[in-house]
Amino acid sequence: MAADQAAGVCVPVQRSVTLRQTVDYAVQQAREADETPPIHFVFMASWRGEDPGTDADRKTAQELLDQVSVWARYDCDDAGLDPESVEISTAIIGTGDYLFSPADYAAALSSYATDHGLDRIIIDPEYSLVGQTTLVEPLEFELRQAGFAVEEAPVERPASRSWFVGTTSRPRFIALFGTSFIFYQVLGGFAGLFDIVTGAITALVVAIALSSVSFYRDPSLSQSPKRLARSLIYLPYLLYEIIVSNLAVARVILDPKLPIDPRMTRLRVFVGSGFPLTTLCNSITLTPGTLTVKADDQQLYVHSLLPFAREGLFEGSLERWVRFVFYGREAARFPTPKERGDTEILQQPAATDGGQDVDGDSVDGSTTSTADEGGLDE
Hints:
- It is a single chain.
- It is built from 12 helices and 9 strands.
- It is an alpha/beta fold.
């Protein structure tokens, strides 16, 4: 796009080694235009605003935007522009839904740019989506398909690149190294010097390769020990649920008179993204009689084998426990999916005599929601 076109500029920001230069480049482009365009710096959130425990993420994002705004106004003054005459705005976007793919991020950015009359997007060359710089090119493609002029800031990039694609931080690296080392020693029984040396080498390889994808946020010295302690309380309960579900499933298998009622169900949960959501999905799958098939945003598609397992799922005990582990006792005091009306049975069983299924629900080929709760709001 020609420099003399007063197009509004949108710059997605994230901490990187080239962010400072990208901000300066955006201001320089504004100086070269005949009419100074507005410049919007936006932070695309990887969390949803309704998630518990996201206050720290929002605060960190706002601090970065405040710093970027200061940089931009300093650069305006340095470039001979009156900082007060340049419209510089900042915003956190994408908190309404979880953003997973480049298309999701592009849709959020496109919506914001369209609403604010921005038609030019400048991308930091070290910008990353969910820790992966390889997803930036698909993001740029999606934005161009949406009709925006997209440009990577031609700034000086680091001379050397990591062997492993992605970004990490010191707390994540140390946490994964320490966890891997201790796990290795537990498996080896703390046998001696050989195990210590090989354990350290193994933990180092694991930390280098996986620290950028193993944590959804930096471990906190104040919160991580509390979560670890609460997880130790949660494990006996999970084992209890696994044993009870095993006995229920075994009883149905051994007694041909007892019905098996497989259904595909959907429920909306509120545990946050990343590790909490993964913990809940795996807990459901570990419990016999239920299998997490897909996690789409906070909607889980779960196959349930028995009415007993389905009712336990809808009562939300595992969801409350996961909230307790990651956010504390207050977060566990939350209505169940059934009480919220966030449950739905998607799959009908084969019809039996009289057109009734094993639960007494009418079989007419339509989607059946849990009784009295109305199902999910679409």
